[in-house]
From TrEMBL:
<dbReference type="InterPro" id="IPR013750">
    <property type="entry name" value="GHMP_kinase_C_dom"/>
</dbReference>
<feature type="domain" description="GHMP kinase N-terminal">
    <location>
        <begin position="66"/>
        <end position="130"/>
    </location>
</feature>
<dbReference type="GO" id="GO:0016301">
    <property type="term" value="F:kinase activity"/>
</dbReference>
<dbReference type="InterPro" id="IPR014721">
    <property type="entry name" value="Ribsml_uS5_D2-typ_fold_subgr"/>
</dbReference>
<protein>
    <submittedName>
        <fullName>Beta-ribofuranosylaminobenzene 5'-phosphate synthase family</fullName>
    </submittedName>
</protein>
<dbReference type="InterPro" id="IPR020568">
    <property type="entry name" value="Ribosomal_Su5_D2-typ_SF"/>
</dbReference>
<dbReference type="InterPro" id="IPR004422">
    <property type="entry name" value="RFAP_synthase"/>
</dbReference>
<feature type="domain" description="GHMP kinase C-terminal">
    <location>
        <begin position="216"/>
        <end position="298"/>
    </location>
</feature>
<dbReference type="InterPro" id="IPR006204">
    <property type="entry name" value="GHMP_kinase_N_dom"/>
</dbReference>
<keyword id="KW-0418">Kinase</keyword>
<dbReference type="GO" id="GO:0005524">
    <property type="term" value="F:ATP binding"/>
</dbReference>
<keyword id="KW-0808">Transferase</keyword>
<dbReference type="Pfam" id="PF00288">
    <property type="entry name" value="GHMP_kinases_N"/>
</dbReference>
<dbReference type="Pfam" id="PF08544">
    <property type="entry name" value="GHMP_kinases_C"/>
</dbReference>
Length: 332
């Protein structure tokens, strides 16, 4: 099972001032994916074997997911898990949601259960604010979700997918990660959100207009300049709102300097995915991406940064039957 990372390009109304709380836009990308293999454990084993976890925290998360799946779907033979690839956690690439959805979907397939992605998300408590990672798992592309009704914002229903556009094949995005940092998560994230002032209705209206009347038409018409300008506007607006919590429009000053260097030399849509620290610079072509990479590296030669050039991914998660380690053992 292989699922795409996603960029969270911004909330539309974090306060629900116009009736729907959060709402968000994002993009599935073709790098930093999550890849796992799930197999029915051999013999009569009732304890799952977990391979490939890079930390105790990641192993514990997988164990917790398996326990929740067992409770939701009922007892059965153990399912062994091998984790091959996953993005660095808490960087803004949606690693937690993609691991949960890939694990849950593979587990259900191996056990022979019919379960939708939304079912798995509910079982594993994903999508509390944004539905982008869940919809990206199913569909890929550029996505907009409609948030939740502010009168019942604690509901467990998935934020509805209200728009999807195939992302232009020729456009690229330079990703910059500050490996010395992690983005806000867990209780710290909850406290940070609770400390923010109400988001003004006028700004929510402005962001709604940017998404509906600038970003989506620009992607549909392959109008890169309009897309880049609108994305910069959206990111600056939402970044200023979150600045008191994350220490600035960008969580990482080093990432900010690198992105500013890119934007100084060419048309680019710059910003930060979720709480960062990963920042992005959208550019119009592969050649422009190489120019952006060179400019970013030159501006950050002494910073602990890593760089990746990605494209949009216009398909969701994929799976195939794995080679069987033992005769008669199902795998996915």
């Amino acid at each position: 099972m292989e699922s795409p990372a996603r960029l969270h390009l911004g909330f539309i109304d974090p306060n629900g001032s116009l009736g729907r709380v959060f709402g968000s836009m994002g993009l599935a990308i073709d790098t930093h994916g999550t890849r796992i293999t799930a197999r029915r454990a051999p013999g009569a084993s009732h304890r799952a074997n977990i391979e490939g976890a890079v930390s105790d925290a990641q192993r514990e998360r997988i164990e917790q997911h398996l326990a929740k799946l067992e409770a939701a779907l009922g007892p059965g033979p153990a399912v062994d898990i091998e984790l091959h690839d996953a993005p660095r956690a808490h960087t803004g690439l949606g690693s937690g949601t993609q691991l949960a959805l890939a694990l849950g979907t593979a587990f259900a397939r191996v056990r022979g259960h019919e379960a939708t992605t939304a079912d798995i998300a509910r079982m594993l408590a994903r999508g509390a604010r944004s539905g982008i990672g869940i919809h990206g798992f199913d569909h890929g592309g550029l996505l907009v979700d409609g948030g939740r009704d502010a009168r019942n914002a604690s509901a467990t229903t998935l934020p509805p997918l209200i728009a999807r556009q195939p992302f232009p094949d020729e456009w690229r995005v330079l990703l910059i990660d500050d490996t010395s940092r992690e983005g806000l998560h867990g209780d710290e994230e909850k406290r940070g959100l609770a400390s923010l002032a109400p988001f003004p209705a006028t700004l929510a209206a402005h962001l709604s207009h940017l998404v509906l009347m600038r970003v989506l038409p620009a992607v549909a018409e392959h109008d890169f300049d309009t897309f880049a300008d609108a994305l910069c506007d959206l990111q600056q607006t939402i970044g200023e709102y979150f600045a008191p919590v994350q220490g600035g429009v960008f969580a990482s000053p080093a990432v900010a300097r690198a992105l500013e260097a890119v934007a100084a030399g060419q048309k680019a849509g710059i910003g930060q995915t979720s709480w960062g620290p990963v920042g992005f610079a959208f550019v119009a072509s592969a050649q422009d991406a190489e120019r952006a990479l060179a400019a970013a590296k030159q501006a950050s030669s002494y910073a602990p940064l890593t760089f990746t050039i990605a494209a949009g991914r216009n398909r969701g998660a994929t799976w195939r039957a794995a080679e069987r380690r033992h005769h008669g053992v199902n795998a996915a």
